[in-house]
Design goal:
Largest sheet: none
Helix content: 25-40%
Distance between the termini: 35 Å
Strand content: under 5%
């Protein structure tokens, strides 16, 4: 990994929050409690562009998370999520509680992050890796939950 530069994003003091897909919201740099300043959001925008090729303007990077009820009109990165829809329809907390886990949809979801890990280890500082990769490595968490 590259040498650390810049500052790591603040971490929320909120409880451990996991999305329907297992993403770690409380560690996600775009989660509302972590993306507090324009500088935070700009750093996320640049980091996600660098690693994932996502062109999301900084002003759009303040996510309320998928656990926020729709009636509160939450802002979610990426809009409608099929994983969230499935979890809500099945009335479970996350995919790890599903009898079909891991399904084809979740395998694709995992791969969207797991395939960038080698590149991330080459181009990111340890702090950037912590902020832009680790919150989205959900396979281990969900597999652990499925075994309970």
């Amino acid at each position: 990994m590259k040498k650390a530069t810049g500052r790591a994003l603040p971490r929320t003091d909120q409880p451990d929050i996991r999305a329907c897909c297992g993403f770690h919201c409380s560690s996600c740099p775009s989660y509302k409690m972590n993306a507090r300043t324009d500088a935070d959001r700009k750093r996320v925008s640049e980091g996600w562009q660098k690693l994932y090729g996502l062109a999301i303007p900084p002003e759009a990077l303040c996510c309320d998370g998928c656990l926020e009820p729709d009636e509160n009109h939450p802002h979610r990165i990426g809009g409608a999520c099929p994983t969230r829809t499935c979890v809500l329809e099945k009335k479970i907390a996350h995919c790890g509680e599903c009898s079909s886990f891991p399904c084809e949809g979740m395998e694709k979801h995992f791969q969207s992050v797991e395939t960038v890990v080698p590149k991330a280890k080459e181009i990111l500082t340890p702090e950037e890796y912590r902020d832009f990769v680790e919150p989205y490595l959900a396979r281990e968490f969900l597999t652990e939950q499925a075994g309970k």
